[in-house]
Amino acid sequence: MRSLVLMIQFFTRIPIKININAKGEDFSNGIVYMPFVGLIVGLFNYGIYILVGSFSNEILGIIFWLISNIFITGAIHIDGLADSCDGLFSARSKERILEIMKDSRVGTNGVIGIILDFLLRFGMLYTLSNAAKAPAIILAPVAAKAFVLLLFGISKYARPNGGMGGLFYSHMSLKRLIAGIFSGILIILFIGSWETLAVLIPSLILVLAFKKIVDDKIGGMTGDTLGAASEVSEISFMVSLYLLERLIY
């Protein structure tokens, strides 16, 4: 329970007033709960979407879904996406890229990344059928957390002097990684279907392509690129749902 509370405190803005006094190994131990945190985020966002859509219209429901996602996550992954875009697309050396990503200021590439993120999210959810909207909103954060766990297992940490992302790489447990990924798959299967589970395949390809880009630039992942990977995973999950709908129907 201690590790679950820590993960909720780290990845969301849910006000749990418990002092964990966390150590490095607590973050690594908590990774098994990351898909459950994704489920909490997804259910919260879906509740806001349904609530607003019930007395308004589809467009306003989607807008408030975007707002609720920012509210509950504190935009932690969007911040990572912006920093990653500023650094990775700066055409600089590895050392300079890492410096740029650590800078709290947001540059042009970061702003473009955020805008594209919102546009793609809005466009995909608006385009999906009503039947696919629930799994898209609820399960995309679950899939994203499972993919981030996969990246933990198949990548190394790029910053030599540590950082926020390094908290999860220290004391890494292969059993907890596998358990976390498996729990994410079970959640997707339980709430969605076998067809929804198939959506993970094209999403995986896009996530691995993103990893290749990051590896070529800085030789590993950071907290920012892991946050960006989470955003890429959520959007690719929705894109894959859209493609699956077109193939089936």
TrEMBL record:
Cofactor(s) this protein cannot do without: Mg(2+)
Heme listed as a keyword: no
Domain of life per record: Bacteria
Membrane-spanning segments: 31-52, 59-78, 111-129, 136-157, 177-210
Principal localisation: membrane
Pathway: Cofactor biosynthesis; adenosylcobalamin biosynthesis; adenosylcobalamin from cob(II)yrinate a,c-diamide: step 7/7
Localization per record: Cell membrane
Family matches, as InterPro entries: CobS (IPR003805)
EC number: 2.7.8.26
Protein's recorded name: Adenosylcobinamide-GDP ribazoletransferase
Species: Lutispora saccharofermentans
Gene encoding the protein: cobS
